[in-house]
Design a protein that fits this description.
Layout lengths: L4 H34 L10 H18 L5 H19 L5 H26 L1
Helix pairs in contact: 1-2, 1-4, 2-3, 3-4
């Protein structure tokens, strides 16, 4: 018996959510580490503020994906914007923690983009 296309699409979406949840969790941890390392330091960018907001954005997106909520795609779109801003700000610094934070932000953007694209097809 062949499964209806909608069930196949739902399984693909669950796998995509799983990858995105992992990327957003890793980004959130990297943002927390960057935030902690930047505490009390002067910055000529929006870092560490961007890290705090990016961390929150990632965690909210994770919550909506984990709940398979109808607004998960909207939160992934917002997460992409906040992660892009954070990556841009952190890339301006030479510190290892900032570079790693930016790298994890870019990974999160990539996975959120997949959620958004696949969600538009469902």
């Amino acid at each position: 018996m062949r499964l209806p296309a909608i069930f196949i699409q739902m399984e693909v979406m669950k796998a995509t959510y799983s990858n995105c949840i992992k990327a957003c969790q890793q980004c959130s941890v990297a943002c927390q580490e960057c935030l902690a390392a930047m505490a009390g330091k002067e910055s000529n960018t929006d870092c560490p503020l961007c890290c705090e907001l990016c961390m929150d954005s990632c965690l909210v997106a994770v919550k909506f994906m984990a709940a398979d909520n109808e607004f998960a795609i909207d939160y992934c779109k917002a997460c992409m914007d906040v992660c892009a801003w954070c990556a841009e700000q952190c890339m301006k610094h030479d510190e290892r923690h900032c570079r790693e934070c930016a790298e994890f932000c870019l990974r999160s953007i990539e996975q959120c983009r997949k959620v958004v694209l696949e969600g538009d097809m469902v």
